[in-house]
Amino acid sequence: MELIQQNPDVDAYLATGEAVDHEHPRVREVSDRLAGDHSDAYSYAEAAFAFVRDAIPHSMDSGDLRVTWRASDVLEQGTGICYAKSVAYTALLRARGIPAALCYQRLTEDDGSDPVVHGLVAVLLPGESAWARQDVRGNKPGVDARFSLTEERLAFPVRPELGEVDYPELYAEPHPLVLDVLKAARDRPHLDRTLPAEL
């Protein structure tokens, strides 16, 4: 699938924003710590991926009732759903000058019911000509997402026969529908009931 930049200027995917607040001291602190052991862009991107995937539990897996949506809040509170974790990873990449974008899938249950939008990150490393999608939602039995620039290792490859979709657009900030749902949620159970079914 060809990924499409919503903004043709790659610098848009380095910018700080309301959700991707990579100039926040908490984001900078985590970025500096990760960069201390991983100085080149590839190893840093992989280390930041592993950190967000493994050290920040997906709140639906852990049962955490808090809702986070800013990168700094995700890193400070150590929780978030896929959208929030994707924002945190995007911020950590941009903090090191690595272009990063938010992108999405539409997923369903095994019978095609209960569609929901799932959040991913696309990264453009130096020397690479194409964006590579990554999934930091967090692994669990049956889910084994890995960092890769060649073969995608996402948590949930789409099943078109069930109406699942890979959305090709790359966003500099969370899709407005996603961000509105996160900001409006009183707690995670409320968020669970209001997650968007499609973009």
From TrEMBL:
InterPro entries: Papain-like_cys_pep_sf (IPR038765), Transglutaminase-like (IPR002931). Residues 29-133 form the Transglutaminase-like domain. SUPFAM superfamilies: Cysteine proteinases. Gene3D superfamilies: 3.10.620.30. It holds the Pfam family Transglut_core. GO terms for biological process: proteolysis. It comes from the Bacteria. One of its GO terms (molecular function) is peptidase activity. The keyword Coiled coil does not apply. Keywords: Hydrolase, Protease. Coiled coil: none annotated. This is Transglutaminase-like putative cysteine protease. It comes from Streptomyces nymphaeiformis. The lineage of its organism: Bacteria, Bacillati, Actinomycetota, Actinomycetes, Kitasatosporales.
